[in-house]
Amino acid sequence: MVSEEKLKKVISEILKGYGENEESALLAADCLVKAEMRGISTHGTYLLIPMFQRVKGGMLDLPTKITLVKENNATSIIDGGNGLGQLAARKAMCISIEKAKKYDVALTLVRNTNNIGFLGYYSNFAAQEGMIGFVGCNAASSMAPWGSSEAFLGANPISISIPAKNKKSIVMDMSSSVVARGKIRKASRNKEEIPLGWAIDKEGNPTTDPNEALKGTLLPIAGPKGSALAIIVDIIAGMLSGSRFGLEVKTFHELEGATGVGAFCMAIDIKKFYDLDCFCSMVDSYICSIKNLKKVKNVTEVYLPGELEFISEQESREEGIKLDSKIIESLNDILEKLGSNLKLVHD
């Protein structure tokens, strides 16, 4: 187990070694640590490895320089400067929250950034401010549109967070594919099979081999519905923002050049539409109503979107963060290569 503060210190040290400034390194580290705490390891410390490769390859520009491209009353477009996606997405949601306080609803688009991590991190910023948060981003082609066997769409995740009064916020955070590609990469690294229904090989056949799946494509959730969702996210996050979309987006995990990821962050100020305290109380009651429904056989608890992740985060805070020994070795190797005296060890 590793403490939250220790892991954050190590990650920020690594990011500073990559060339990020101290303040921004701490902000990005917070996102990566939260991912680990919530059990979303594919969006956590593992990302430091491709970041290291991209910095060495001159394909990640640090320190991150975010610029305002265009701004109107309730809308903005920012350029992520091919830097850390965590910083660009955070900035975008902060802009939307501030604008929503004045204009009720606000939308900020992001162009020219990289992998932004898990989206619930940003949508929940809005919920913490008494707002509803929407976040979406596109990604490199890894999923075939419904009816095709050729990758064209990214997993293109989307997240929506809704605040409650005494309960935890409802945080929907999901990819448009049955599973994020990071889980297939993880299965490949661990030499494990993947379940049928996650992906197809390059010939369009169902496969349990993660390596064949990586050569093939992911499958969309609910068939044509997931495919449609991925298309819409790609158009808004990529096309509308002026970033890359479709086959133009490059993977963060191979040295193919700048990824060109696009994203969008929207905030809706609830109190401009409904009394905030009353609304959040109704969400509490809504959650309780769902919790009290009759359960199917062998199910003892009905969980709301994001609830399991909140539970995992709390356990991590109390007991420490579980980190794979291979990841610890990789991070210590990076620290050594950066000339740092820090070393990550289990508490």
Automatic annotation (TrEMBL):
Gene3D superfamilies: 1.10.1530.10, Hypothetical oxidoreductase yiak, domain 2. GO terms for molecular function: oxidoreductase activity. Keywords: Oxidoreductase. It comes from the Bacteria. Pfam families: Ldh_2. Signal peptide: none annotated. The keyword Oxidoreductase applies. Belongs to the LDH2/MDH2 oxidoreductase family. This is Lactate dehydrogenase.
